[in-house]
Amino acid sequence: MNDTLLQLKTIIQNASNIVFFGGAGVSTESGIPDFRSVDGLYNTKYEHPPEVILSRSFFDEHTGEFFRFYREKMLYPDAKPNKAHIALAALEQQGKLKAVITQNIDGLHTAAGSVNVLELHGSVYRNYCMSCNKTYPMETIAQAKDVPRCSCDGIVRPDVVLYEEGLDQKLMQTAVRAMLDADVLIVGGTSLNVQPAAGLIRYFGGGNLVLINKSETSYDKYANLIIRDKIGETLGAVV
Ligand code: ZN
């Protein structure tokens, strides 16, 4: 085990309230591409970039096109939790990790067994009718030929936060509380450029900030430990 991994192992051993904050990089090791990355989802089959298609105004104006993209590029029903998800679930079981805060919508932390998961951007596994609020499983969206409809004929939409939509404020408050209470914050798989979720880490006042990311982040100068490696390999090696 190299020096940085040993440091991480020691930090985790001495911690009693770890919070993990994760982004798209946590899911890429499960085969789910980051739609923001250059070689990610964008391809010429769509006339608009993903950030446009995944916006509320696009959803309202081009609902069929939104769902065509969403079904093809946002749903990964066969994806499995990777070593990062599994290690974090184990840390929660040991009583060390108190919350996973994620920007991902793929439900893989829950699938790995994590219980206290704060999904800031929602989940593809929750869907609801925009007219009567009836809830639907992912299959309703995945199997619909065009725009998924409720038995009341309302549109069934995923409970995910689209561009131009605000985050759930109650959930944000819970996430802020977790940050304030944490003694170790591990940030992984995000360059911390997406607001307002990324601003959350300003609330962390504990002793050890650990960043695990392949590229630089805007918080590198505040970090106690920086690991430029795959997050699954890293967490899998120390937990
Ligand atoms: Zn309905």
Give a summary of the structure in a few sentences.
The protein is 33% helix and 18% strand. It has 239 residues and is of the alpha/beta class.
Q: What's the quaternary structure here? A: single chain
What is the H-and-E element order?
A: HEHHHHHEHEEEHEHEEEH
Quick one: biggest sheet?
A: 6 strands, parallel
Radius of gyration: 18 Å
Classify the fold: give the CATH topology of the domain at 1-31 and 81-121 and 167-239.
Rossmann fold
Terminal residue distance: 13 Å
CATH superfamily of the domain at 1-31 and 81-121 and 167-239: TPP-binding domain
Order of the strands making up the biggest sheet: 3-2-1-7-8-9
Structural class by SSE content:
alpha/beta
Mean pLDDT: 93
Bound molecules: zinc ion
Q: Judging from the principal axes of the Cα atoms, what is the shape?
A: elongated
Sheet-strand content, in percent, reads 15-25%
Binned, the helix content reads 25-40%
Low-confidence stretches: none
Could you tell me the number of beta strands? 9
**Name of the level-1 CATH class of the domain at 1-31 and 81-121 and 167-239:** Alpha Beta
* Number of helices, counting only DSSP H or I runs of 4 residues or more: 10
CATH architecture tag of the domain at 1-31 and 81-121 and 167-239: 3-Layer(aba) Sandwich
